[in-house]
Write a structure and sequence with these properties.
This protein has 95 residues and is mainly β. It has a single domain (25-93), classed as OB fold (Dihydrolipoamide Acetyltransferase, E2P), CATH 2.40.50.320. It has no helices and five strands. Strands 1-2-3-5-4 form a five-stranded mixed beta barrel. The radius of gyration is 13 Å and the shape is globular.
Length: 95
Amino acid sequence: MSQHDMPMHGSMGGMKSAEGATSMSSGEVKKIDKDAGKITIKHGPLANLGMPAMTMVFKVKDPAMLDQVKAGDEIGFVAEKVNGALTVTKLEPAK
């Protein structure tokens, strides 16, 4: 497994995406479920996961991330497949 230096959408295979090679996606927070550790995001295409634009529920890597945002916020985020579940691994309010 080699790391890819170029940010291309070619990581659609069964391999995990390389840390740091994933660019931020943008989206809007629709709902936060702190008890379940989940966030609903309306997002554009997620090239690293080969997904089109849609609204969907993600787990969060760290439940404390949910304290940084609220429904209606525009955000930047990174979603990856972690143990088979789509998980937000990085989250920050849009500037």
